[in-house]
Write a structure and sequence with these properties.
Elements lengths: L1 H40 L5 H37 L6 H106 L1 H37 L1
Length: 234
């Protein structure tokens, strides 16, 4: 009987220790639920943080389940010791009250664990939903910024092309005016050449040099325009 009472006291001590551990873990689980609720309401919710929160919740719940199994097993061992005592002995009655109290604590803690577990699951789902929505918004903003930059670059290229076309038109007008001056001068020189043969041969040489200068100028302008277009779109 003394050995039986000593074993019962050992199991009672173990049950009290498990009771305190379960209570502490349930407090941690409740705090984790509060953190998940705050994260779901925060605009800084991130998918990686939500995943860490979910992993932490799973580990904590597994730990609590393990403690409940040990607690239930300890209560069962205490019940077994009660069976070895006389049914009407005062000692058995006192021990039965202790076992009933632990069984009631186990039932209350299981109920609290179930409620907190369900609430935490919902809070984590909301946090993950907000994190996914924020990632989608960030992705949309990045795409919009990229399209805006492309639009600005395209507008800048169009403005540069317009400027090049304006310069080319101005150059063409200038060359046209110079051609008019050269044509007028050439007509006068032709008139003089017909009167003076020596002057005619000199004018022919001048015309050949002028023709080469025109080709050289046209080539330089073409190269400059091609290089500018290549630099703008290359």
């Amino acid at each position: 009987m003394e050995g039986s009472g000593s074993d019962f006291d050992n199991y009672k001590t173990q049950a009290r220790r498990l009771e305190k551990q379960i209570y502490g873990k349930l407090e941690e689980l409740s705090a984790l639920n509060i953190g998940a609720i705050r994260q779901a309401q925060s605009s800084l919710a991130l998918r990686t943080v939500s995943q860490d929160l979910s992993n932490g919740a799973i580990a904590l719940q597994n730990c609590i389940k393990s403690l409940f199994e040990k607690f239930s097993e300890t209560i069962s061992r205490m019940d077994e010791h009660l069976e070895s005592l006389p049914s009407h002995s005062p000692q058995r009655k006192r021990m039965a009250q202790v076992v009933d109290r632990f069984r009631e604590i186990n039932r209350d803690y299981l109920l609290e664990f179930s409620r907190t577990q369900n609430a935490l699951r919902s809070s984590i789902q909301r946090a993950e939903l907000f994190a996914g929505d924020k990632s989608h918004r960030d992705g949309s903003n990045s795409e919009s910024d990229m399209l805006l930059r492309e639009k600005n670059n395209l507008n800048a290229s169009i403005d540069m092309i317009d400027e090049l076309i304006g310069r080319a038109e101005a150059t063409r007008d200038g060359l046209g005016r110079q051609r008019g001056v050269f044509s007028s001068t050439a007509d006068r020189l032709d008139q003089l050449a017909r009167k003076f043969p020596l002057i005619h041969s000199s004018i022919n040489r001048i015309n050949r040099h002028r023709q080469r200068d025109k080709f050289a100028l046209a080539f330089v302008l073409a190269v400059c325009m091609l290089f500018t277009l290549w630099y703008s779109f290359g």
